């Protein structure tokens, strides 16, 4: 029997469509299989102590970008929770106030892991801990310190931080600290130490002795150069991207990236819009700024820029932050319905930075971070529930399971092991 040509074409189209669906299904299965097998580690997630109480905490699906339900939904195994303190005056009063803030965050993390949800999440101190906890079916918390400013001028405090679980520390944030110049000095070329202070140089030795990873994401380039020269162990950039693709002072230029390779360290690419694509971010943020203002006005709420929040009174800041997620959610819904809205910075832009760094310094020196709840998040990885989308983009670009395992956590754990091995060796030498 001869079939009419149109029927043959129809059968052909049907076969092609089936083949396409089979290919898509096969790809989705591959992505899911890899994502479930590898250890996924996000090295930078900020916290608010108000979300670590008996009534409001990370066992709930809060509006926060990171919490246990969202980690479970997105298959994120490990979250580095951050003890962050903003930069203030370099005096005893400033240090004391900052110390109280830092201790409250350490206490919050321990409360989550030891009192609120010990059956769901556990604090890890080593790579062996990470693997053991994941094997038990629980999520993993680790602690990073963003800005050593609260430590003051007493180097013995580093050991206290270590005992509390800190496994990486940055010596500066947005502003020069008593230890190190910050990348923010690029704005006016005003430097306090021309890199590290003498106290900062001693801090490097102390972190090597203890087994704390040195984080260079916020310090200045000269400070970073000096850290590499002084450190006996590999260092990390806990949340930085490639300056060659986006010229922000928080990103690392190719010379710095090559130094990281030579040092044996790892750069955790960060999903922060303004560090990934300047042009797209400026267009999108300008548009969203107006959307959020309109939403806030319609709800009768005040609205502030990120730079203005720090200047608010504690009560005003608390009230603003309570309404902030609601305004953002409504604003994003409105933008999604607007066909003329500028394109958002997305997972493709993020993985472009991973590609650049892998090509320049190799697969063994690149990792992944989000800076969730600290300004991070992009279209496609807006919170922990969308974590698999990063794996999907890596698979689509041809990264193998072994390579994805390194990017998602293997490289970071390797550096942690090496840092702790150096500490053990230094301890033997001192005995």
CATH architecture of the largest domain: Alpha-Beta Barrel
Cα distance, first to last residue?
A: 91 Å
Name given to the CATH homologous superfamily of the largest domain: Metal-dependent hydrolases
- Counted beta strands: 9
Q: Roughly what fraction of the amino acids lie in strands?
A: 5-15%
In the predicted model, the low-confidence regions spanning at least 5 consecutive residues are none
Structural class: alpha/beta
| Total count of helical runs of at least 4 residues | 14
Quaternary status: single chain
* CATH fold-level assignment of the largest domain: TIM Barrel
The SSE order reads HEHEHEHEHEHEHEHEHHHHEHH
* Major beta-sheet overview: 6 strands, parallel
CATH classification, class level of the largest domain: Alpha Beta
Write the layout of secondary structure elements.
Elements: H1 5-37, E1 41-46, H2 68-74, E2 78-84, H3 92-116, E3 121-123, H4 127-135, E4 139-146, H5 157-163, E5 166-170, H6 198-210, E6 213-215, H7 221-230, E7 236-237, H8 254-263, E8 266-270, H9 278-298, H10 306-309, H11 314-337, H12 347-361, E9 366-369, H13 388-396, H14 401-430
Parallel strand pairs: 1-2, 2-4, 3-4, 4-5, 5-6, 7-8, 8-9
């Amino acid at each position: 029997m001869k079939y009419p040509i149109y029927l043959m074409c129809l059968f052909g189209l049907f076969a092609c469509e089936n083949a396409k669906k089979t290919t898509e299904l096969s790809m989705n299965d591959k992505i899911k299989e890899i994502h479930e097998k590898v250890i996924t580690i996000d090295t930078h997630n900020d916290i608010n102590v108000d979300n670590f109480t008996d009534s409001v905490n990370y066992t709930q699906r809060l509006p926060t970008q990171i919490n246990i339900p969202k980690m479970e939904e997105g298959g994120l195994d490990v979250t580095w929770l951050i003890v962050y303190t903003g930069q203030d005056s370099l005096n005893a009063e400033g240090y004391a106030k900052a110390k109280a803030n830092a201790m409250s965050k350490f206490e919050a993390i321990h409360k989550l892991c030891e009192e609120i949800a010990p059956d769901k999440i556990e604090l890890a101190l080593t790579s062996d801990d990470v693997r053991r906890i994941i094997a038990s079916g629980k999520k993993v918390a680790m602690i990073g310190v963003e800005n050593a400013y609260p430590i003051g001028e007493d180097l013995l405090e580093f050991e206290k931080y270590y005992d509390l679980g800190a496994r990486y520390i940055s010596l500066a944030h947005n502003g020069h600290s008593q230890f190190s110049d910050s990348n923010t000095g690029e704005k006016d070329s005003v430097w306090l130490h021309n890199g590290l202070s003498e106290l900062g140089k001693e801090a490097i030795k102390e972190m090597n002795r203890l087994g704390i990873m040195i984080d260079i994401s916020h310090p200045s380039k000269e400070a970073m150069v000096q850290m590499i020269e002084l450190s006996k162990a590999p260092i990390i950039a806990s949340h930085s991207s490639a300056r060659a693709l986006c010229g922000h002072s928080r990103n690392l230029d190719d010379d710095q990236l090559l130094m990281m390779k030579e040092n044996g360290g790892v750069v955790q690419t960060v999903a922060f819009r303004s560090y990934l694509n300047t042009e797209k971010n400026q267009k999108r943020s300008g548009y969203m700024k107006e959307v959020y203002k309109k939403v806030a006005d319609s709800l009768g709420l005040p609205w502030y820029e990120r730079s203005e929040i720090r200047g608010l009174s504690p009560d005003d800041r608390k009230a603003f932050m309570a309404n902030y997620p609601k305004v953002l959610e409504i604003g994003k819904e409105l933008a999604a319905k607007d066909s003329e809205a500028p394109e958002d910075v997305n997972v493709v832009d993020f993985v472009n930075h991973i590609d650049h760094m892998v090509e320049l310094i190799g697969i063994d020196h690149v990792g992944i971070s989000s800076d969730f709840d600290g300004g991070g998040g992009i279209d496609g990885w807006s919170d922990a529930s969308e974590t698999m989308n990063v794996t999907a983009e890596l698979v689509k670009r041809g990264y193998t399971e072994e390579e994805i395992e390194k990017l998602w956590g293997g490289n970071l754990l390797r550096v942690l092991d090496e840092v702790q091995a150096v500490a053990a060796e230094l301890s033997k030498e001192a005995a």
